[in-house]
Amino acid sequence: MNTTTTPNKPKILVARAIFPEALAELEQSFDVISNQADVVMTPQALQEQLGKVSAALVTGSERIDANALAKAKNLKIVANISVGYNNFDVPAISAAGIMATNTPDVLTDTTADFGFALIMATARRVTESERWIRDGHWNQWSIVTNPLGMDIHHSTLGIIGMGRIGQGIAKRALGFGMKVIYHNRSRLPEADEKACNARYVDKETLLKEADHVILVLPYSAENHHTIGAKEIALMKPTATLVNIARGGIVDDVALAAALKAKTIFAAGLDVFEGEPTVHPDLLKLSNVVLAPHIASATEKTRRAMVSLAIENVKAALAGAKPPSLINADALGK
Ligand code: DGY
């Protein structure tokens, strides 16, 4: 950890490496404890650092709960550099009177693009085909035995979780002439359904009818294992399943078993239970495309996410309401 000390400037923690220009911007206004070496902090180290600062920029690798906040007497804000905030125990943060923020909107299109990329890579066996070439199999090319995939165009896309990113994926599907069905905690207003040309169905119908299922819902205890063995058994044997939501939404063990038994065609995963560890059964399978949680990972978008997190911190420390405050109600703001 590196520290720049200037008297009278509030002290802040930047828990993971950020772009050097963003760090330089922060150093103009704050005493910054930075972690450009990008080594994930232990819970104890995080607790110690949070005890020294007025604000913290964090990511999914930092769990912010009562334990992390035990020494955080001056902390005013924890600013997540991500839209998902399942690394936050929001009630514990609110109970400590601390503001919690995330980075919505700035990553919607980039993440929707990647969701679509993963649907396509999974159905058309892109990574498996690349390995096939690298392993020297191209001389076995054949009309019937090449890696044969499933069509995207004019197929049925089932989206579970129809927030901003889900709707972005639905709009991209329009260009492929796909039929879009969705399931969500609550049904969208009619105008939004029309804009996406999407039909609301229950989860069971979606799993039975969709050729490609994509998960874009936030993680919560009640969404844990939204897709397990029972749900996978409802899917078509030709169907694909893509998870860009969060690990834990899918039961990875049940999924690996289904992929091994080929009860569904293939899966594409950007998120995993227990990441950065990937279940060893998934690593052995060829009908799964694996990505290291990169749905929002373009330079432009990651810069925008960091900028929004900085904006949130600056607002909070200036006594204003941060633009993307999660716990406004709990804090009466
Ligand atoms: C998010 O912002 O929640 C993404 O998962 C991070 O890439």
Radius of gyration (Å): 22 Å
Total beta-strand segments: 13
Give a quick account of the main beta sheet: strands, pairing sense, barrel closure.
7 strands, parallel
Mean pLDDT, to the nearest integer, reads 97
Highlighted features:
333 residues, alpha/beta, Rossmann fold, 2 domains, six-stranded mixed beta sheet, 13 helices, 13 strands, globular, binds (2R)-2,3-dihydroxypropanoic acid
Concise overview:
This protein is α/β, with parallel strands linked by helices.
Explain this structure.
By secondary structure, the protein is of the alpha/beta class. It is built from 13 helices and 13 strands. It has helices spanning 20-29, 43-50, 90-95, 108-123, 126-134, 164-174, 190-196, 203-209, 229-234, 252-261, 280-283, 299-317, 328-331, and strands at 2-3, 11-14, 31-34, 55-58, 77-80, 99-101, 156-160, 179-183, 198-200, 212-215, 240-243, 266-269, 288-290. Strands 9-8-7-10-11-12-13 form a seven-stranded parallel sheet, with helices on both faces. Helix 1 links the parallel strand 2 (11-14) and strand 3. Helix 4 packs across helix 6 (164-174). Bound molecules: (2R)-2,3-dihydroxypropanoic acid. Residues 82-84, 107, 293, 295-296 line the site of (2R)-2,3-dihydroxypropanoic acid (DGY).
Write the layout of secondary structure elements.
Elements: E1 2-3, E2 11-14, H1 20-29, E3 31-34, H2 43-50, E4 55-58, E5 77-80, H3 90-95, E6 99-101, H4 108-123, H5 126-134, E7 156-160, H6 164-174, E8 179-183, H7 190-196, E9 198-200, H8 203-209, E10 212-215, H9 229-234, E11 240-243, H10 252-261, E12 266-269, H11 280-283, E13 288-290, H12 299-317, H13 328-331
Helix pairs in contact: 4-6
The structure holds (2R)-2,3-dihydroxypropanoic acid.
The site of (2R)-2,3-dihydroxypropanoic acid has 7 residues, from loops.
